[in-house]
Amino acid sequence: MDNRDDMYGLDAAIIMNPRVWQASGHVDTFTDPLVECEKCKRRFRADHLEDKEKCPECGGKLSAPRQFNMMFKTQVGAVEDSSGTAYLRPETAQGIFVNFKNIIDSFHPKLPFGIGQIGKAFRNEITPRDFIFRTREFEQMEIEYFFKSSDWEKHFESWRLEVWSFLKDLGFTEREVSELHVPAEDLAHYSKKTIDFEFNFPFGKSELLGMAYRTDYDLSQHMKESGIDLSYLDEETKEKFVPHVIEPSFGVDRLVLAILTHAYTEDEMGGEVRTYLKLPYVLAPVKVAVFPLLKNKPELVEKARGVYSQIKVQIPQAMWDDNGNIGKRYRRQDEIGTPFCVTVDFDTLEDDTVTLRDRDSGTQERVKISDLVSRIK
Ligand code: GAP
User: Fold this and answer.
1) Which of 27, 61, 187, 320 has the most Cβ atoms closer than 10 angstroms to its Cβ?
2) pLDDT score of 1
């Protein structure tokens, strides 16, 4: 977003006017087919069951599927009746559509341009599962990219390639991620074409993120419901029209799960099985850990503190650790994916060099303190 001149960011509300969700179609169509066990009363997603007749928990008879709206309801205002019913947003996207006019009026962007947002979304999932793969509260990063309808195929292809380039920056290849072109009968109510990018999770291949051509569905619906003109005037051609939109929609939690799954590695080091996270440097939460060889030698601790402070100015994700012995510190940092460890020892006091240890190979080399940051970054 920050590197492009055609993108604008915003931070919309989680609880919006409920009419937003009527206009978007979510009140009527954002549903999952559910069945209920007549014996134990548990509910299941009908489309997740192999045997549609029998309860997978107690063997009881299952009801016919019923549509269950996945939006979380809440009550706003002083009076507790249906006029106060509101919803927690089930996607961040609608916050972008209802703020479209604010962006147009404030920045006067030229088509094509995009609006992006990151934030929480909420869904009353009946079967949250697989660690953070499906949860009721999750983080989305969504972009709505607006253009003239005749250009949709060009933009769809260009965003498909952008998504791949983002995934490759995270370290994924075609071995882990594949495209599923969603069949027409399974498309969401707003979509004319959708690609799901699927990841090979340990529990099977499942949706990581989605990319949809939402046409002018959302803006047109909000125009109809609000009576506000959301069309765009092309200053050059004097044409006035409702822009169409492509939406790359990223689930942050699923990306984190995919990254952890992909980075988890076991090898052998020093005759023992070692577990570590092979995170790319850019994704590692701690980039470098700094240790004094011994924590009961004040001169070593003081020198190591100095090295740590010096590194932290330029690499804020540096960490101090003086617990346990060096071997244990290395293992702990390996497990959280820290790419480098720096040890300050007695030689450091003499010659201003430290030991720099590489996470993946375990190799250690002497490096001058003044060269550390450029070696790590
Ligand atoms: N605005 C379009 C939209 O919301 P979606 O396919 O329903 O489309 C987009 O959701 C992404 O949000 C998914 O690809 C997934 O990464 C993430 N997501 C959806 N439901 C989720 C849940 N219950 N838990 C975690 N992530 C979820």
Assistant:
1) 27
2) 86
Q: Is the torsion defined by CA of 144, 145, 147, 151 positive or negative?
A: negative
What are the helix and strand counts (H, E) for the chain? Answer: 11, 21
Ligand 1 atom nearest 133 alpha carbon:
25
Burial of 214 (C-beta count, 10 Å sphere; 0-12/13-18/19+): buried
In the chain, what is the greatest distance between 2 CA atoms, to the nearest angstrom? 79
| Residues 6 or more apart whose Cβ sits within 8 Å of residue 219 | 97, 100, 230, 242, 243, 245
> For 203-220, how does the pLDDT look when each residue is reduced to its tens digit (9 = 90+)?
999 999 999 999 999 999
Within 8 A by CB and 6+ apart from 238, the residues are none
Phi, psi (rounded to 5 degrees) for 362: 75, 5
Q: Which of 321-334 are b and which e, b meaning 16 or more Cβ less than 10 Å from the residue's Cβ? A: bbeeebeebbbbbb
Instruction: Report CA(251)–ligand 1 centroid distance (Å).
Output: 6
Q: Which two tokens stand for residue 287?
A: 């980039």
Pick the residue whose CA is nearest to atom 20 on ligand 1.
Answer: 134
Cα–Cα distances (Å) from 91 to 71, 186, 272, in that order, read 10, 18, 46
The 10s digit of each residue's pLDDT in 87-145 is: 999 999 999 999 999 999 999 999 999 999 999 999 999 888 899 999 999 999 999 99
Ligand 1 within 6 A of 191 CB?
no
Closest by Cα among 30, 61, 26, 197 to 49: 61
Ligand 1 within 6 A of CB of 254: yes
CB neighbours of 235 closer than 8 A, spacing ≥ 6?
none
CB 307, CB 292: distance < 8 Å:
no
What residue owns the CA closest to ligand 1's atom 24? Answer: 134
